[in-house]
Amino acid sequence: MTQLLNTKEYKSEAFVQELIRDRDDVKKYIIDSLGFKYDGSERFSREIKFINGITVDYRIIKDNKIIALMECKSGGIGVTDYVRGIGQLLQYEYFFEEKILSNGGEEYSPDFKTAYFYPSDVIKNNNFNIARFKYPASTKLLEVNIDNFIVREVVKEELEKLEAIGTQKAAISQYYFRDNRLFELYILMQYLKYLEMIGKTKIDRRTLEREKLKKLDTPNNNNWRNAFITLSSLGFISKDNLLSEAGKHISIKNYPQFCLEILNSYIKPYVSVIYKALHDNENSKLGELVNIIDSYFGGKQVLFVTDSGSRYLSSWLNILRDDYGCIDFTSRSSDRTILYNPLELKDEIILEKISKNTKATKYIDYFNLLIKNNELI
Question: How many Cβ atoms sit within 10 Å of the Cβ of residue 87?
Fold first, then answer.
């Protein structure tokens, strides 16, 4: 997949603002991330003047009420400008508290939020840590993925994971994957789409795991909770445990396409560092690979790769074997064979290799059979 934003573009704040102005899908994802149901009637007004000469990057109106005032920043932002943006958000919160309006005359929604909108590369392109700032109580951090334009909220739990970056840990990506194969995530998304299609408006996760999902007998059949956590962190699940607007968009893809999307938009940095470590070390034990990877970052643990001993790394190797079919090994064995490197191939070749080599087919087929026989209602 071609990179959708080049370095110069995502480092421009004007381009980030124009991304919202020009793309209806981004508007839809923003509304969804703010906790509202998108219907297309929402109004995004750019560079709105308030008191004291303060200009709001975007005022968002739904049902004739202001639901958010948004500050936008670029991928190349420095710490001073980032802190200045937090100051802007504090003023936006003040406008809401004091019912201060621009010339538009609309009133504020009781569910009003301030929003900080920035590209996904902010976390790894800068020397500051976004988790080590205090934000206004009304603020939602909204991150737009620079590869697929999907917007997600960065929640408090994720910020807690990011706090150690720079001091104790290094970060090459902020996306959380662990203890699930990608085909388990894919099956769960297809299942949630099906449940909404038959009229479900809210899902009790624990009941679904206990009474339905365990019928699937997948490799991580006792860890469907983690599948929900991963999909939620990616912005694919709503607060009702059904698919978000972004999740609905992704769920249209077939399984190989889904794997390719995850590779290109979310996990490429992880795959890159793992293949680097496997080069000339493909038969090393997990602990040895952990040490090799940490050595690339001055001995620091790498977030979501080596910061939990070998657990993350073991999960990544299982994904590379069972989903992409690009390496092969017997469980609990370090006797590995590298079949191909997905980062060196064109997308169409990767799709062919996933279709041919994946171990997911029998699980997806069994899920479809249970759906056909009404055993998962």
Answer: 12
Q: Report the SS3 class of residue 98.
A: coil
Please state, in angstroms and rounded to a whole number, the distance separating the CA atoms of residues 141 and 126.
Answer: 17
Q: Which amino acid is at 60?
A: I
- Residue 75's closest CA among 164, 153, 165, 144? 144
The answer to whether the CB of 93 falls within 8 A of the CB of 114 is yes
Q: What is the DSSP string of 341-374?
A: -GGGS-HHHHHHHHHHH-S-HHHHHHHHHHHHTT
Complete domains list, the chain, with CATH:
7-163 (3.40.1350), 168-377 (no CATH)
Give the model confidence (pLDDT) of 298-347 as tens digits: 999 999 999 989 999 999 999 999 999 999 999 888 999 999 999 999 99
User: Taking residues 165-188, what's their average pLDDT?
Assistant: 92
Q: Is a pLDDT exceeding 70 seen at residue 7?
A: no
* pLDDT digits 0-9 by tens, 40-67: 999 999 999 999 999 999 999 999 999 9
Hey, which bits of 120-256 come out as E strands? 139-144, 151-154, 169-170
What's the pLDDT tens digit per position in 116-139?
999 998 887 667 899 999 999 999
Q: Is the pTM of this model over 0.85?
A: yes
Taking the CB of residue 51, how many other CB atoms lie within 10 A of it?
12
Spatial CA neighbour of 246 closest among 256, 255, 234, 254: 234
Number of C-beta neighbours around residue 357 at 10 A: 18
Are the C-beta atoms of 178 and 230 separated by less than 8 Å? yes
Predicted confidence band of residue 2 (pLDDT cuts 50, 70, 90) = very low
Check: CB of residue 49 under 8 Å from CB of residue 102: yes
